[in-house]
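INFO  loader      accepted 1 record
INFO  loader      residues=202
INFO  predictor   begin
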Amino acid sequence: VIAGGCCIILIVATGFTVQHYMRDYLRNEAVSKMVVSLDELLGQLDIVSNGNTRTFQPLDNLSDPRFSLPYSGFYWQLQDSDNVLKRSRSLWDTELKFRRLTRRFGLRDFPIKGPDGQFLLVVQQKVKLPDSDRFYWVSIAQELAPLQIALAGVRRSLFFGLGLLTLAVLALITLQLTWGLRPLALLRKEIGKIESGKQTRF
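INFO  predictor   done
INFO  writer      dumping tokens
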């Protein structure tokens, strides 16, 4: 019983540990792909001087066509501390809303609620362009639902496999105890016969 209980505890702990690492892996993979899109967008950023005014050069949409489809779940946005300056066509007539913008340079990823009510994973970077004394924030967002669906599929497969493994381990333990204790059961039976006088030796 103790051996079976220990095996079940170890298998369950393994399942939750593997699930944790799979969740981190899927998230990191998504962030890595979003960083590629963010770098592509940063490569297009440039300020054009027109007399006393400075404006951003027109930004082409990214190579991933999903940034052009309305409410596709893939979005980008460029803003300063006060206003949204540019955004992807997929955002249509809405904007990404942030409680606060990242204050440090470098990448930051976090979840927010998206324009269509869905949850998004955001990769955001604070930048300062050479011809400007202002800071800008570039954000790439992706819907979280596909990641959650993928993780749910992995979780089902994982716990199904671990469930079969648990049953197999318990069956082996039961078989081992049955065959391992068989000599003791025979010995107890022989002792009972000797005590009752049915036989005089083993």
